């Protein structure tokens, strides 16, 4: 039995098809991957994060985008939909559709069982190629824990972790604090 492979498409073909599609797809090096739906915990955590960050950034030159803002990492040939993207200063978009941000400051992914390994590994490796990116946060949906990767001035990435209901996490590059009790508000989690 032979396996048929899908032909690779260009980024321009992907963007045209994606803009006409009702479903969301990510793109990596000519391949297109359908995105699956998120759990209610995942959606509630994203909503809580958007609420907390938007409130803190209200009078600052940063914008919080939820899961429909695509991020383009052109040097990695990647187009992805992070759960939350924060852009500070002048946002640069791929074109006049203003739906593909090229210079995010902060990217946040809420981990799902099906995407956790990719979010931690290859996807983060691609995101690190964005010169504008200062912070990458991985938010667990089955325990109260946020892993915060911050790029230092010398290019090194440092990991900070906040865990437990009473914990809080600082994001100095945007002047925000995430209190885990608020991030996980109304999320039923059995683990600490």
CATH topology name, in short, is tt1808, chain A
| CATH level 4 superfamily | tt1808, chain A
Low-confidence stretches: none
Give the C-alpha Rg. Answer: 17 Å
Description of the structure:
The protein has helices at 11-20, 40-56, 116-120, 122-127, 180-183; strands spanning 25-28, 31-34, 62-65, 70-73, 78-80, 84-88, 100-101, 106-110, 135-139, 145-151, 157-163, 168-171, 176-179. The protein has 192 residues and is an alpha+beta fold. Strands 3-6-8-9-10-11 form a six-stranded mixed sheet, covered by helices on one side. It has a five-stranded mixed sheet with strand order 2-1-5-4-7, covered by helices on one side. It has a two-stranded antiparallel sheet with strand order 12-13. A hairpin with a 4-residue loop joins strand 4 (70-73) and strand 5. The chain is globular. The N and C termini lie far apart (48 Å). 30% of the residues are buried.
Salient structural properties:
tt1808, chain A, about 190 residues, five-stranded mixed sheet, six-stranded mixed sheet, 5 helices, alpha+beta
Brief rundown of the structure:
With 192 residues, this protein is of the alpha+beta class.
Topology:
Elements: H1 11-20, E1 25-28, E2 31-34, H2 40-56, E3 62-65, E4 70-73, E5 78-80, E6 84-88, E7 100-101, E8 106-110, H3 116-120, H4 122-127, E9 135-139, E10 145-151, E11 157-163, E12 168-171, E13 176-179, H5 180-183
